[in-house]
Every structure is written in structure tokens, then in C-alpha cells.
Amino acid sequence: MRKTNIIVTLGPASYDPEVVRGMISAGADVFRLNLSHVNSSDDYPFLVGVVKMVRRIAGEQGKTIEIMVDCPGHKFRLGHFVARKVRLGGLLELTVNQMPQNGEISFPYPNFMSLLEQGQEVVIGDGVPRFEVVRIASQESPNVLCKVTLPGLLEPRKGFTVLGFKIANLLLPHLTEADKRGLEFAIEVKAEQVVMSYGTTVVQLNAFNVHYSELGVMGKVLFKYELGEAWSDIDDIVNASDGGFVGQGDLGLSVPSEYVPHEAMRVISAYIAKGKPCIVGTQLLASMKNHLFSTHGESAGIYLYVLKGATGLMVSDETSVGAHPIEVVKTLDLLIRAAEVQ
Q1: Which of 110, 136, 169 lies at the terminal end of a domain, its last residue?
Q2: Are residues 184 and 308 in the same domain?
Q3: Structure pTM?
Q4: What pLDDT, in 10s, does the model give residues 151-208?
Q5: Is 180 inside any structural domain?
Q6: Do residues 35 and 185 make contact, with C-beta atoms less than 8 angstroms apart?
Q7: β-strand 220-225 against 121-124: which pairing, if any?
Q8: CB 3.0 to 4.6 Å from 271: which of 67, 74, 166, 276, for a disulfide?
């Protein structure tokens, strides 16, 4: 019997009932709904139907599954503009305006923009493109000027990270309106697990817990560790959460990528030491988003996380928008079983 849970993320590639049936047969234990992709309140009735469908199919197969609701947290995204490819060394202007003009890029966070410093690197999406701040905003020139350091397709509404920037400096509210709506949804679908994303302090986590409790707590609260600055509060965070969740993809945008395995391992250790579960997710089988087979490097990473004691492994794009969601689950099941034998 496999001990390590498989968490799959639902999306356009896996909303089909037959795909859900195949993933359950292949070994999926937990179905994750990533609310960061919810565009409006109109999306929630559809997701309620998805949860009902998943539970119905699991029941037909005599399988016990759980639902994980991943709340969006303070995820920063670019605004609206015309997508385009940016070239190495090219110059870009960031504006706080929601309706940019003359090729400007909408960066709709005035407080954030005012704290940008010359030399900081802005990373888009999962790492491409990237640009460096070469001129900060001023009264004479309110836009921030950047130079492209890694070319690629620059698209609107993509998430971004500023390397080395402390999110705590923004003095954001502890709980977003999207989180509050997400928790209401979690109660509605009786989710067994709820995830707090992009947190940096135990104060934020406590606010999340209090609001969830006021609604009528039903599931376990997992803290997603994807911002390196959260480590300074890790002991209190572990104590205040039911489990941990290392989001290694976004973590690699918060700390140098060569340190991601070390960060993940010490978070796992912190939770295991307290007898609490900790899962690791995103980019575990990234190559299988488009291909039928995993790489040996991906297999090695999964092997090491299992040996370290991770209680669950989560796939994201591989099953939500990938070409082979059922094969992804089959592969992950085989890799976990092989590691657990050791």
C-alpha cells in the first residue's frame, strides 16, 4: 500500500468525467482546485459541480478521495496590455495605469512600484521573461524603466516576482477578499483540506484560521511555503497550521533556484518533527505537460522527497492543462512506490 498521497490539480484538461475516472483508477488521492485562476464569482457554481462529479465518480469506484481548496492569497499579476515578444536589452516602461498607452506595461500596484529599487530583477510567470529596473519612478517620470535581461513572450495578467523584495514591506491586509470567498467555497463543498497561499508570517496565518473558524471549520489548514521570507516565522507557522505545502515552482522565484531543494527539505523536516504532514508540489513532472514520459532528473527529485518524508506530492499544470493527465498520475504512482520500497 502506497503511503505518500498523490494530489492532482483539476483544470480544463481534467474536468472531463472520464479523465477524472482514469486519474482515480491510476491512484489520485486528493483533487486540488486552484482558486487563483477563478476570474469571477460566476466560476464558483461550475466548480461546485466539478466537486460533486469527482465525489460521485470516486463513490462509484469505491475510492475515498479528498478535496483541496487552494486559496489565492496575495498573488501579484501584471495588468492588461497587448501581449508581445520582448528582446534582450529592450526597454520597457511599467505604469500603474490600468489602461496603458504607447507600449507601456500595466503594473497596477502603486505602493509596490514606489518601493522598487534600481538593479532589482522582475521575473514574469515561471521565470521568463525577466527584466532589470534601470530607473525608478519619480515626480518627473512616474513610470519605472526596465531593461530586458531574459527575452520571451510577455503576456497580460501573468504573475510576477521581484527578486529580493520583502512582501511584508507592503503592509498588506492579512486576508484578501478572494481568500474570504475561497473559504466560503471550501465550506460549501466540504473540502477536507484548505491551503493558505503566499503567506509570510504567522500573523497572516492566524487571521486566515480565525476567519475560517468563524465560517465553521471543516478541513485541515495547510500553509503553502513559497516565499523564502516565511522561514523566519517557520516554527510558529508549523504550530499554527495542520500541515505544510512546499510550492517549489514559486519558491524558485523567491530564493535562488539552487537553494530550492534545501528550502523544501528543511520545511519538510520542520513539519515532520512536529508530527504533521507536509506535501511538495508544482513542476515535479513538468516535462509530462507535453510528453508521455518523465525525465530521470524528475524521477530523482521525487525519490528524494519521498525518502525525506514528504507525505504527499502534488502535480499542477501536468494534470490541469497538460496533454496526458492520466499518464502523469500513473507515472507518479510508480515513482512513489519505487521510492517507498527503499
Answers
A1: 169
A2: yes
A3: 0.91
A4: 999 999 888 999 888 888 887 888 999 999 999 999 999 999 999 999 999 999 999 9
A5: yes
A6: yes
A7: unpaired
A8: 276
Cell of 165: 523584495
Q: Which of 309, 328, 219 is nearest to 265 (CA)?
A: 309
Q: 95, 118 in Cβ contact below 8 A?
A: no
Measured between alpha carbons, how far is 8 from 314 in angstroms, rounded to an integer? 6
For residues 50 and 39, give the distance between their C-alpha atoms in angstroms, rounded to a whole number.
Answer: 16
125, 144, 169: which is the final residue of a domain?
169
Grid cell 520542520 in the structure block, residue: 270
Q: Element (H or E) spanning 152, and its range?
A: strand 152-154
What's 188's domain CATH number? 3.20.20.60
Domain carrying residue 305: 5-74+175-341
- Count CB-CB contacts under 10 A for residue 148: 18
Q: Are residues 184 and 70 in the same domain?
A: yes
End-to-end CA distance of the chain: 14
For residue 127, pLDDT beyond 80: yes
